[in-house]
Amino acid sequence: xxxxxxxxxxxxxxxxxxxxxxxxxxxxxxxxxxxxxxxxxxxxxxxxxxxxxxxxxxxxxxxxxxxxxxxxxxxxxxxxxxxxxxxxxxxxxxxxxxxxxxxxxxxxxxxxxxxxxxxxxxxxxxxxxxxxxxxxxxxxxxxxxxxxxxxxxxxxxxxxxxxxxxxxxxxxxxxxxxxxxxxxxxxxxxxxxxxxxxxxxxxxxxxxxxxxxxxxxxxxxxxxxxxxxxxxxxxxxxxxxxxxxxxxxxxxxxxxxxxxxxxxxxxxxxxxxxxxxxxxxxxxxxxxxxxxxxxxxxxxxxxxxx
Amino acid sequence: xxxxxxxxxxxxxxxxxxxxxxxxxxxxxxxxxxxxxxxxxxxxxxxxxxxxxxxxxxxxxxxxxxxxxxxxxxxxxxxxxxxxxxxxxxxxxxxxxxxxxxxxxxxxxxxxxxxxxxxxxxxxxxxxxxxxxxxxxxxxxxxxxxxxxxxxxxxxxxxxxxxxxxxxxxxxxxxxxxxxxxxxxxxxxxxxxxxxxxxxxxxxxxxxxxxxxxxxxxxxxxxxxxxxxxxxxxxxxxxxxxxxxxxxxxxxx
Lengths: 306, 253
Fold this sequence. Notes:
The complex is a heterodimer of chains A (306) and B (253).
Chain A: H1 4-14, E1 23-28, E2 31-36, E3 41-45, E4 52-56, E5 61-66, E6 69-71, E7 77-86, E8 91-101, E9 108-118, E10 123-133, E11 140-142, E12 145-150, E13 155-162, E14 168-177, E15 182-191, E16 196-205, E17 210-220, E18 225-234, E19 238-248, E20 253-262, E21 267-276, H2 280-288, H3 293-305
Parallel strand pairs in A: 1-5, 1-6, 4-7, 5-8, 6-8, 7-9, 8-10, 9-11, 9-12, 10-13, 11-14, 12-14, 13-15, 14-16, 15-17, 16-18, 17-19, 18-20, 19-21
Antiparallel strand pairs in A: 1-2, 3-4
Chain B: E1 2-12, E2 22-33, E3 38-42, H1 49-57, E4 64-69, E5 72-73, H2 79-85, E6 87-90, H3 102-110, H4 115-125, H5 143-156, E7 161-165, H6 173-190, E8 193-197, H7 201-206, E9 209-214, E10 217-222, H8 224-235
Parallel strand pairs in B: 3-8, 3-9, 6-7, 7-8
Antiparallel strand pairs in B: 1-2, 1-4, 4-5, 9-10
């Protein structure tokens, strides 16, 4: 079912060696490559034929669904609209991710527009990895959008990472939190060469006792550039925190703009942001443990992006 | 043994009126640390204690002079090479890392990820528990906790020479004696040449030899009893001429 490139990409974006266990939907070059449903997880193509709808039955526990995307066709720019309906009181993991293999000078890209409706009391963990590889010189673009709607007491944890090879990324994350719901977003992005990445995040804390924590870790090497914007908009008694750290290496550039909007007197919003090179004291510590300078740099970056 | 020969360390003197003036922090210092002995380095603030320790580790470059470890000239070696040659360093203010755990640091220090081996090091250090292993070494660790991490990573190197810069900073009173016993035990069972920079009497009393540094030079070497007069002088107030009384708000100390 998979060729060598598919396997390499699936391993990189979803840790898959073979067909995953449980429900999955694998999309390759804009077409369905394989799909499996389970008793509790249904996957169907949407009406417009532009993506899938994943329906997770209420009360589904400890199940996962994999929906990786492969783009290896020269010149293809794939756009997909996926909807996830996570039933009440369920607890599931969704593993997404897109791998681009570029073998020519033509640009390739993928835009995954993902909408999550997380119903009352449900918990979902969403893991999304973006990777691009290949010897081609074509621009590789990955522009994901996630829209999250959390019902009362729902919880979503999102791990979003882009760790290499992507020339251009425009990420947009929006979320709306109802009473008692919570959201944790961790974004890790590493850029190099002339790559650019922009991440825009808008989190609306609409319900009482809702909680949001947005963590961003950026490593900016070569002549690359990353910009990070995050807004917490509090409309209720809630708690929100933004933590964004960027490590600059070589000639890397970064603009980080956290924004806190308290539109309710009981809102509690905080942020911490830092941009800078790897601290000398960290390097000296690891070198005093016997690591060479370059090894020390790598270990610090690995830990930071872990 | 570790030989310090004619070591000088000077830095640009930014306060001097003359451009290009240098300030000497360590002034032609000579000393030989014998293998397997316990040394305490003490002295007033700014006397050059930490600078000397950092010169030995290669954190600061010598302005002139040389350092030999067991007959090998380590002067041209960088921090990594000196660590590989058997010198370990415990920082007074340890670095904090986002995302790096105690386990990560200990694995690097010990050169193994083997769970049993790491657990045995934690047991050997004894002053921190196993659940510490997966804690991130970040700003959430207390001052005392991070010093214990620092101590453990130094010991995990099984160094020939272990340098501890103010190991009791941030450590509670009840942990200082166990810490002294730990360093003595490491010295005795592993033959570690131990150099502790400290003002704490517990470390000064535990040392085989006390070095008192003043103005970038060694002002005294010997035992604590012999140093007590000098230490008293150092703790005496030097503002006698203008003193308006210790209880006065304008006390200069």
